[in-house]
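Dissemination and training. As part of the outreach component of the grant, students in the summer workshop were shown how a complex can be specified as a set of sequence lines and then modelled as a single object. The example used during the hands-on session is reproduced here so that future cohorts can follow it. Participants entered these lines:
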Amino acid sequence: MTYHETSDSILTVENLSVDYDGKKIIQNINFDEKDITRPNKIQGQSIAFVGRSGRGKSTLFRCLSGLEKPKTGKVLLPDMHKHQGEAYPPMKEVGEGDVGFVDQKYTLFRHKTVYQALQFAMRKQKLEKSEKHDKIMVHLRDWGLETVKDQYPNELSGGQRQRTAILEQVLSHTNYIIMDEPFSGLDVGNINNVKSAFKLINESHELNTVIFCTHDIELAVALAESLYVLGYPTLENGRLEPIGTLIKKYDLKSMGLAWHDQLTNRHYDVVEQVKQSILES
Amino acid sequence: MNIKSWFRPFEKISRRHAALISGFWLVLLISFWFIGTSGAKKLFPPPALVWQGFKDLYNEGLVVHIFSSLWLCLQATTISIVFSLFFAYLSPIPAFKPVVKMLSRMRYLPLTGITFYLAMIVRDARTMQIWVLVVFMSLYFITSLMSVFKDIPQQELDHARSLQCSRWEVLWEVVIKGRLDYVIEVLRQNLAITWMMLVTVESILVAAGGLGVLIKNSDKFMNHGRIVALQIVILLVGLGIDWFLDFSRRTLFRYSKL
Ligand SMILES: Nc1ncnc2c1ncn2[C@@H]1O[C@H](COP(=O)(O)OP(=O)(O)O)[C@@H](O)[C@H]1O
Ligand SMILES: [Mg+2]
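and obtained this result:
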């Protein structure tokens, strides 16, 4: 699995912290993801966050997606809008709508059918109406949503709602897509759908990036190139400080574990290590 | 048929049994009415007297009066819902929020105070009726609409924002289009109070007839049968509007499961 790490960042977070009503939820979050290239391949990246419930994964994601202003710190992304077509645009602070976001509850427009929702997601693209239609229909077929295309969210099952929510973001053409627990409550087939969505997103543009969190550590190790553990840090007296921060990073690509079709024993070793560090934070 | 299960909390029973239970209560109520009013001392007019009252009302043009009230209701509701929506849609905008909040607080103003000021501007009684109702109903509608919009989960707003909606698009898609069905529901929720208000206004500001006028006249005659008959009619018309609104919400908006 040869790859090359460029010196260009795709996502930089500096000293991020968030308060709710004066209570610190997360603090001191710093990381920098560089673009990596692979020979003869378009390779966007997947970044996983894992950690116990309530450690601030959703809170961090809301900041990364520009939906919430952090108390301190910055989230920086390449400015793809102003510098369209450039290989590595200069970085800018994230704004609303720069990043697609699929929340834990797979929220949709309650007054739009699946088809209408996807049409809406594509509204800014310069395509003919019939081209859009064809594109939507192809995806609906691939994702097993064709039969429910004229149904409203209240008439869909949880899995169907979730796939629609992800598809909306895929079709809306943002380079960055954040998914909050995209695998929770899905059956085996649906999990494969979401996995192939990751692949589809990653392979359609060099800078396309999927950021996700999950409680399924094996999936996280299988899908991500970088994996971060978000948890409570241990204080000197041995207790945990109840403010979320990054505890550990696993650079799965440099460990030679990224882009495998099958998990090996080395993957499972890492899964165990990750679980251990989640438990300790 | 397991009658014991009818008395178990949260028990799900078949539609037929539910209808049976309702029928039982109805029969009980009616027979109570018949038996309770058959003696010499009467607290409540017996069915025969009410039936007589109903016939009297019918001969006096009950149907015309009902339509007069419904017409007033339609006019006043239409104007006030347009007003209220305008203000309620402004409520997510910080600069206008205090204005909308203040309007909603105004519902504690007494009806008479409002009529007093309106009387200085409006002469014609029918117009007066409409505007009293519009002012009054709007305050209630604004209050309910505001609470509907306030209850929109942050996730729905965020979902729209993450699809590159500008803030105005969020307002349009999530608040305006996404909550149209609630507008009907708000009408329905407030119907009881507005319907009562309408009949009261009609009886205070007598204009082109209506159910309120009939009540006022019955008052004069001290005719119990007539009063009860009229109350029943008013109740049934009110329930009819309620049913109609609920029906239109469910047929117009398939996504509407409240
Ligand atoms: N809107 C909010 N107001 C106050 N506290 C919140 C809010 N949202 C989340 N929290 C708190 O922030 C912490 C982190 O929550 P969250 O980011 O949802 O964690 P995770 O997604 O990792 O389970 C929790 O302790 C939660 O109670
Ligand atoms: Mg969460």
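The mean pLDDT of chain A is 90. Students were then asked to discuss how this feature might be tested experimentally.
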